[in-house]
Amino acid sequence: MTVLSEAVLADPVELTRALCDIPSVSRDEAAICDAVEAALKRLEHLTVERVGNTLVARTELGRGRRVMLAGHLDTVPVNDNFPTRTEGDVMWGLGTSDMKSGTALALWIAATVKEPRFDLSFAFYDCEEIEAVHNGLNKLSKSRPELLAADFAILLEPTYGLVEAGCQGTMRVRVTTRGKRAHSARSWKGENAIHRLGPVLERLDAYEAREVEVDGCVYREGLNAVFIGGGVAGNVIPDEGWVDVNFRFAPDRDEAAAEAHVREVFSGFDVEVSDTAPSCRPGLDRPEAAEFVAAAGGEFRAKLGWTDVARFATLGIPAVNFGPGDPNLAHKQDERVEIPRIRSCADALRAYVEAP
Amino acid sequence: MTVLSEAVLADPVELTRALCDIPSVSRDEAAICDAVEAALKRLEHLTVERVGNTLVARTELGRGRRVMLAGHLDTVPVNDNFPTRTEGDVMWGLGTSDMKSGTALALWIAATVKEPRFDLSFAFYDCEEIEAVHNGLNKLSKSRPELLAADFAILLEPTYGLVEAGCQGTMRVRVTTRGKRAHSARSWKGENAIHRLGPVLERLDAYEAREVEVDGCVYREGLNAVFIGGGVAGNVIPDEGWVDVNFRFAPDRDEAAAEAHVREVFSGFDVEVSDTAPSCRPGLDRPEAAEFVAAAGGEFRAKLGWTDVARFATLGIPAVNFGPGDPNLAHKQDERVEIPRIRSCADALRAYVEAP
């Protein structure tokens, strides 16, 4: 087993490198989880719980407020980019951006800040890069929500050092049209269901997506066809057509409001919701969040993608994304992180948890 | 091997039953072809050529005009409807309608009319029910067109005893739209190719198909989507979408004119022709054709589907469909033929080829 030494735990850059150099493609996180668990268990100011390959460590200082720092342990598959290599100020390799440089910051705070101004919780979890049903944070939010209790959460996903607040929700629906089969040589005896998709596409094309400001963050929605299909045979008038539509919605709508909106857009059509994930309000009105934005330099913006911050939202915990990685490099072969950005994010986090 | 006796050859109903009771699903026509070949070779007034499982028999009476009677030997797969059974005036079973009752009439004329008023040719061919590349008549029209030479052709496909003249052409095109991929959380960075299919479908829906009279037959065209597709992933703005469109066109358009029309309908879009089969003019202005219509009762109508008559058209031979089967029963489990209709069609054919 890789041992994370005190020297490594004391330096966020060395710790990033050490975590990246333990292979941990999704569903193969036992080794990295063992290494992190062993490191946490050496820290007497923390209680540690392990559920599968997910760890939660907590201070119990009776501070009255609690902040959660969270990061996933897994990576997408290796793509000729393991282990890390460093050139000047840049560390290259799988996981450097998404998100072991962020996860390392959480572990570094856990190891080095023994007297934080609020109680701290740390979550290190598995299977974030695959289907949500396997996601360790998702599973814990259902089986042991008390372990995730906090007043505010920081998810150390790559944001290039900017605070990205909340997240949009996402919903997929299938819009189906129906008709009547006939031989295409006698098409007037049938009713063409594919032709009936025309107005569905026209409504999508004409759709004007909102830009919404929530707690000072601007979210831009989107309603888009992502798949289309239909057809029986080359000589048959088709009796069914469908469009799969993805709605990305701002945090001023919950899932029910999002569904009602989509049904209104496609009124007169058969609409079925196939999957949905909630939005998350930025929560920057909370003092813990506002203090964090200040510590991180005062700038913030809306997170446009969907991230695990929404899992905290479902538990009523405001959450932001904040990490040194570049989100544009996530899942890329040439994934890398700027070492100075690891250090500046580390400084911001430390200032936040240590400030009087 | 089934032997088609003189008694069977002398009765179109018995001959229909005998042909139906030899299994001959497409690509398994050797046995039926052997039986028909042996019967033809016993007839001294005919020359017989066999190419694969396709037979051509001809009189050589120096009549100056020649009429072709043609029928395919194969059927679609068995569907719990083999062998035949007869109830009262109805013969049930695979092939009774499509088209062994018609093929039997050609063989019956071959066996029983030794002094026709024109020279006669007979074609019995394989693989009509599967891809055109296997079709025996199609292959012969390319490899041995001289065997098919005639002034007029009657294809004994099911028409319920009506003369169905010519046929519509059929063309399939793919209309493709393109866009730009992006993550669906940032959809404004992409261009949705599926949304761009909207105007294609609108044009299809608004299309007003022509009804065209050619040589006294009315053809009704049709332009229809038969397949639609597109999409990359549930969270990606798609960069390609496509609609497969089937154009059924009247015999006043050849394939080039049909293609030009489709390109005009979809002007501004990327249109690619994927396959095409020619139309066939009814050719009822030819004396051989007019005489046949008169012999068959004077009524005729346009054939709306595509049939092998178009193979004769490409050789410059006018052709009609005429057979006792009901086209609505083709390929159905409850396929059947009315025995009186076999006899009335037989009478009409015989009157036509024997009239002074």
UniProtKB/TrEMBL annotation, chains A, B:
It comes from the Bacteria. One of its GO terms (molecular function) is succinyl-diaminopimelate desuccinylase activity. Residues 168-266 form the Peptidase M20 dimerisation domain. The keyword Phosphoprotein does not apply. Its EC number is 3.5.1.18. Keywords: Hydrolase, Metal-binding, Zinc. InterPro entries: ArgE/DapE_CS (IPR001261), Bact_exopeptidase_dim_dom (IPR036264), Peptidase_M20 (IPR002933), Peptidase_M20_dimer (IPR011650), Peptidase_M20A (IPR050072), Succinyl-DAP_deSuclase_DapE (IPR010174). Its cofactor is Zn(2+). It holds the Pfam family Peptidase_M20. NCBIfam families: dapE-gram_pos. This is Succinyl-diaminopimelate desuccinylase.
